[in-house]
UniProtKB/TrEMBL annotation:
This is (diamondback moth) hypothetical protein. GO terms for cellular component: cytoplasm; nucleus. Keywords: Cytoplasm, Nucleus, Ubl conjugation pathway. InterPro entries: CUE_CUED2. It comes from Plutella xylostella. Its main location: cytoplasm.
Length: 288
């Protein structure tokens, strides 16, 4: 396998081409070093087991590229396997010890000895992935021994005990970067946490976004959930009730004179006919 810089460059270029080919309108600004590291770990997992969790990979990528879940799983699987084969074919003849030293130069940490932090049963656990300087990329991609899965399982459990609040995917990712070295995996985990690059559980379990709906469908859902529609409103006949008390007729002047000298502006007009006649009855004439 090529160096880390060449590896990330090739993976980034292939990932961008795959997303652009299947999702022309996708926004690639959300793809950063965290996503590239995750894709590289998936490629390493696919090299050991072609039947890896494709659905989990699609769900993880959908958190960064929302339309990634629309791509068929068969296309994603074939792209991962082709990219893994291309990385293997471009591998150089660098030994794994050189890769370990180069990776150690990239992780410069000032922390206490991790050997004291390890459980007693796991202090002697080490990676058996070292080989001679003449081994090439094909030798690195060969199937591992039967006890490798058990070894990585024990390392995962050990790191889970040391970092209980860390996601399992983040632990496996750090172990794969460290090539099975427990101390380097713990150092990488601490380094990624300090740099804010650790994979969060919310991002790992983020569900795919719901498909967008138009305004008409959204309006119908809101009406069906929150509003009340009277279905008999169109068939009902509006019959307003007559007022029980008629409004009083108020006047200010009568016979061109103010009706009251007590300060009232208006006075009530009497309803009875007798009162009307009395009001209209002329005054008695006095005979001389």
């Amino acid at each position: 396998m090529s160096s880390i810089a060449q590896q990330e460059s090739l993976v980034k270029e292939s990932l961008f081409q795959f997303i652009t080919r299947n999702i022309p309108s996708a926004d690639l600004n959300g793809i950063d070093d965290i996503v590239l590291s995750y894709v590289i770990s998936i490629l390493e997992e696919a090299s050991q087991d072609p039947c890896f969790d494709v659905e989990g990979f699609i769900e993880m990528m959908a958190a960064y590229v929302p339309e990634f879940d629309r791509i068929e799983a068969d296309l994603v699987l074939s792209w991962v396997l082709e990219l893994e084969a291309e990385l293997t074919s471009r591998g150089e003849t660098d030994s794994l010890s050189h890769d370990d030293s180069a990776g150690s130069d990239r992780i410069s940490l000032t922390l206490q000895s991790l050997t004291e932090m390890l459980p007693p049963a796991n202090k002697g656990t080490r990676s058996h992935s070292n080989s001679s300087s003449s081994s090439d990329a094909a030798d690195y991609r060969r199937p591992l021994e039967d006890d490798t899965d058990t070894l990585w399982h024990e390392q995962t459990r050990a790191l889970a005990d040391m970092f209980p609040n860390t996601a399992t995917m983040e632990i496996k990712h750090c172990i794969s970067i460290a090539h099975g070295s427990l101390e380097r995996a713990a150092a990488t985990l601490l380094h990624r946490r300090e740099q804010g690059q650790a994979l969060s559980a919310a991002a790992l379990h983020c569900a795919a976004r719901a498909p967008e709906i138009d305004d008409r469908e959204l309006k119908s859902r809101i009406i069906a959930r929150y509003s009340y529609v009277d279905k008999d409103a169109e068939t009902k006949e509006h019959k307003p009730l007559a007022p029980k008390i008629e409004p009083k007729k108020m006047v200010r002047y009568r016979d061109n004179k103010i009706v009251s000298l007590k300060g009232e502006r208006y006075t009530e007009v009497p309803k009875s006919g007798a009162d009307e006649e009395n009001l209209k009855k002329p005054k008695k004439q006095h005979c001389p």
